[in-house]
Specification:
about 170 residues; mainly beta; elongated
Length: about 170
Amino acid sequence: MRRLLKIFFIISLLAPSYGYGEQLKDLTGLSDMVEIEADRLDVSTIDGQAVFQGNVKATRGDILVKGETLTLFYDNKTQKVTSLIAEKNVYVLWQDKEASCNKAVYRLDRNLMELMGDVVITKGQERLSGQKVTIDMASDRQVVEGQGGRVKIRVNTQEESGILQWEK
């Protein structure tokens, strides 16, 4: 019975509120909500994780993450979602930037996102590529690593560049 209650709790956290969807968009706390869609969901209450598979789409505020699989981790004691890991054909859309990579780790509890494996970020004609990009939204700091390869960037020198700016 307790296991069923935990599963119901997780699903209730993840399921969108259809009857009040339009009203919820106007609430200030909406950016704290994570909405996830997938073809399949497997929940392990013992491990504190939920694994979404097949055409996964997750949104939080103005951040959209897509991939083949997404693993959601939550603290068993507090029931708070701590992180999301998207894998296989990962696509991230945030504000006016698009990114593709092999894996994305979004640590909600630390406001940190790591993009790994053949990372390409574009904003208009600007482009940034490397093997690992760490975006610390709390300190407005980004680190791009080549990890055996080279870091490459293309910026427009005639206009204000925004490829490296990840606002909160």
